[in-house]
């Protein structure tokens, strides 16, 4: 209010007094000259400079949350942006102040443009967050039929004859080796037979691990589910 020559108290009841009776007395002469009321200045600063101010609220964004347990919809409002706007004014033929439409207050300063970009980014963040939450809700509500998946994995498990390191498979290989060499089962000592079975079991375990890793990697790559690799591997091993 200094420009009007009035000093207003910041505390209720907001008493007013002439600026010449207040803190202006303690200012140096040159500064008092700069802060003179407009009607006392001689630099024509008041000419064509009349304007009005008002406070305007920006667009309010919001989001909502639907509670499945209580069937309540909760709305969350964002911060309400407030800004001070101004409009230049001019005198008409009757001496009344009216808006000067030839002087619109379009602030194209770098600071204003930066603030506009920040606001736009904030709105984009809200859109992205809302879209992500909607997708997440959709995915959570998807009911996947598990039986066809289990059947498919079971067929693969049977096709690769997993696991191979079983007593039945080891006995089959031992009998095949002895038959190829025309050696009777009774002709092999107990220690030799245990040693042979141990070597065969070790090789089969290694082959099982290699084949299992290849199959699991192929399935995860085809289904784009690398984050389920350990789970799939456990299922193939345990069933």
TrEMBL record:
It comes from the Eukaryota. This is Uncharacterized protein. The lineage of its organism: Eukaryota, Metazoa, Spiralia, Gnathifera, Rotifera.
């Amino acid at each position: 209010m200094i420009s009007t020559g009035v000093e207003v108290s910041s505390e209720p009841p907001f008493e007013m007094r002439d600026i010449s009776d207040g803190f202006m007395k303690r200012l140096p002469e040159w500064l008092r000259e700069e802060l003179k009321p407009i009607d006392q200045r001689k630099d024509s600063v008041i000419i064509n400079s009349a304007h009005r101010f008002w406070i305007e609220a920006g667009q309010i964004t919001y989001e909502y949350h639907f509670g499945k347990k209580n069937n309540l919809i909760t709305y969350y409002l964002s911060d309400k942006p407030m800004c001070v706007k101004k409009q230049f004014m001019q005198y008409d033929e009757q001496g009344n102040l009216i808006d000067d439409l030839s002087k619109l207050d379009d602030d194209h300063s770098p600071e204003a443009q930066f603030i506009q970009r920040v606001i736009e980014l904030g709105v984009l963040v809200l859109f992205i967050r809302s879209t992500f939450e909607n997708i997440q809700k959709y995915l959570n509500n998807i009911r996947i039929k598990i039986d066809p998946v289990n059947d498919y994995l079971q067929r693969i498990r049977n096709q690769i004859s997993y696991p191979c390191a079983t007593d039945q498979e080891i006995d089959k290989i031992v009998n095949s080796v002895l038959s190829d060499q025309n050696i009777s089962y009774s002709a092999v000592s107990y220690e030799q037979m245990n040693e042979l079975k141990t070597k065969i079991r070790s090789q089969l375990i290694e082959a099982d691990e290699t084949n299992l890793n290849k199959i699991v990697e192929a399935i995860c790559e085809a289904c784009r589910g690398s984050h389920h690799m350990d789970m799939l591997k456990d299922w193939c091993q345990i069933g």
